[in-house]
Structures are given as structure tokens and as C-alpha cells.
């Protein structure tokens, strides 16, 4: 098998090109063995398979949350609505208890489901793959749901370093 050629670009050019792809924004949540709630903002979410129902997301290997996500049997992918930009920023930047004052419910596996999420996927932590400086998590969806007013709510989207809502064309 032929190997990949060395890149003909630097890391900043790669980041700029990647930033042109608009992605939805999620908060991935779980519970540490100690009971502490853990959550991180991620835009690296994607569907994988309908049968079985599989989704994927990735996390930087240097993330402080990596050991908890690696070890846990379950997590929840919360798809954010445009009105939840504050939650996106909170779970991306706040140090300490990111859940303080954040309204959520406990899913069937005890993992936090964020109130107001556009959609959510409660997942079994099926497999993990280390690739480069990230770990790809594949979750087998055990339960999922959508916001009761999903048709009226705009998703939170990230593109070219900025957050957006969507309107039909």
C-alpha cells in the first residue's frame, strides 16, 4: 500500500481550511466515578451507522477530561440550539464546576442530559481509536430524543471561527 505524501501546507493553513466546514455544536456529558459531572464542548460529532445506531466524536488526548471519558461506560451527546451559545462557551472555557447553575436531567444511565438541547443521544462507550493528537469515540446510541419544538428552533453552528444560527434557504 502506498503511503501518504508529506503535507505541502503548515498547521495554520490546515486549520483555516478546516474552519470553512460548518459544524453543529454539542456538549458531551458524563459522570465521573466520584459522582462529579463532566462536560465538554465539541463540534467533532457525526453519525456513523443506522444499524446499529452509532455516532462518533473526538477529544484531544491532552484534555483533562480524557481519563473520565476513556473509562466511562456511557456519555450523552447534547446537540445545542442557537439560544444555548452561553452553554457552549461555558463548557469550552469555564474551569471548575461547569454544571453550576446549569439545568439538566438525569438520563436512564445516570448521565446528564442538558435542558433545552435541540437533540440528545445517550450512548454506550462502544470503542475508542487514537489517531494523531485526538481519540475518536464511537458511541452506540441506546436512547435519543429531540426538543419538543424542534421545528421552531435553530441549531448552533460554528464556521470560520464564528457561531451562527441557521435559516432555511
TrEMBL record:
InterPro entries the UniProt entry points to: Flavin_Rdtase-like_dom, NADH-dep_flavin_reductase, Split_barrel_FMN-bd
Matches recorded under SMART domains: Flavin_Reduct (SM00903)
Residue span(s) of domain Flavin reductase like: 18-165
Domain of life: Bacteria
GO molecular function annotations of the record: FMN binding; riboflavin reductase (NADPH) activity
Coiled-coil annotated residue ranges, if any: none
Alphabetized Pfam families for the sequence: Flavin_Reduct (PF01613)
SUPFAM superfamilies, per database record: FMN-binding split barrel
Keywords recorded for this protein, A-Z: Oxidoreductase
The family this protein is said to belong to: Belongs to the non-flavoprotein flavin reductase family.
Protein name as it appears in the record: Flavin reductase family protein
Source species: Paraburkholderia panacisoli
Lineage, broadest ranks: Bacteria, Pseudomonadati, Pseudomonadota, Betaproteobacteria, Burkholderiales
